[in-house]
Amino acid sequence: MTPMDDVARELGLLLRSLKGLHVPLVVDGGARVEMPAAAVLATLDDRGRLRLSTLAELLHLDLSSVSRQVATLVEEGWVSRERDPADSRAWLLELTATGRDVLARVRAGRVHRLRELLPDWSDGELEAFAGVLHRFRTDLTGGDQPRGDLAGSCADTAPPASLVTAARSPQPDRTPALAGQESR
Q1: What is the end-to-end Cα distance of the chain in Å, rounded?
Q2: Candidates 3.40.1390.10, 3.40.50.300, 3.30.310.260, 1.10.10.10; CATH matching 3-179
Q3: pTM of the complete model
Q4: Residues 122-152 pLDDT 10s
Q5: What's the Cα-to-Cα distance from 158 to each of 90, 108, 152, 155, 161, rounded to whole Å?
Q6: For 146-160, what is each residue's pLDDT tens digit?
Q7: 131 within 8 A of 121, measured Cβ to Cβ
Q8: Hey, which residues does 83 pair with through a beta bridge?
Q9: How far is Cα 102 from Cα 104, in angstroms, rounded to an integer?
């Protein structure tokens, strides 16, 4: 086996195990924030106002799947939706203050989970690992994006939820944004 074979194998194993990093959070009202919802919230936090089609493209998911997830997030009050003044047929999506709070709680839960899983890793090891992950992601995507999904320190990052969601769900349009609620 070549070193690239080893990387490919380890990456496959990692993608299958990353879902353990997401700590489903139960927020006020009893809604659970699952990985697809966290991915939408994180993307809107990173990128600001987006059209639904752009959001779906960034998440590497089909439009109908993201549309159903966004409808649930709008219902929860975590995402706002308004007509695009440049094209009245399109909607612009934006994270609400409540959505930012939910996302901050998800990220804090993830950091707590990482601390539990990696108690013996030094700050230097974590910084080095974050740097290698950042380089890997930017090489894969052909560039950098705003801090939030993979870049930066462990304390302010969200995991590659969109990658994990796509990897673990062969039919992403059947994954509701919130557990216990029907897909829309």
Answers
A1: 46
A2: 1.10.10.10
A3: 0.71
A4: 999 999 999 999 999 899 887 765 433 333 3
A5: 28, 9, 10, 9, 7
A6: 433 333 323 333 334
A7: no
A8: 91
A9: 5
